[in-house]
Specification:
Layout (H helix, E strand, L loop, with lengths): L1 H21 L5 H16 L4 H12 L6 H9 L1 H6 L1 H26 L10
């Protein structure tokens, strides 16, 4: 299991290194996640130990939100002044996400009838 956790952290570190080296506007962990995903696609299977570590992380995912919640509470006064713009942004981005997801599912989802032009 230590090897699997090390592999996850190595992908995150590689993502950080790529972000810093290339000056990309993406977070390093996102690039690391893409690297891990690519590795797993090429391997065509998920190692058992990596699956166990992933399941353990997902089981305790709520703990990872504690620092974010503490930060929000610490800056609550600052957020009050921006409440309208933050709220509006959250609503608009949620509606945009739902719309794009619906359009993609409509286009690519099961039950889509193929059109024949001939």
């Amino acid at each position: 299991m230590l090897q699997a956790l090390t592999a996850i952290f190595a992908c995150q570190l590689a993502g950080e290194a790529i972000t810093v080296a290339l000056g990309l506007p993406l977070p390093g962990p996102v690039i690391g996640m893409a690297l891990l995903f690519t590795f797993l696609l090429l391997r065509k299977s998920v190692p058992v130990s990596l699956g166990k570590v992933g399941d353990g992380l997902l089981a305790n995912l709520s703990l990872l939100f504690v620092p974010a919640g503490a930060g929000i509470m610490m800056h609550a006064g600052r957020l009050e002044g921006e409440a309208l713009s933050i709220g509006l942004t959250l609503v608009v981005s949620t509606l945009a996400t739902i719309t794009v997801t619906a359009l993609v599912m409509n286009r690519l989802g099961p039950g889509r009838k193929e059109r024949s032009d001939g």
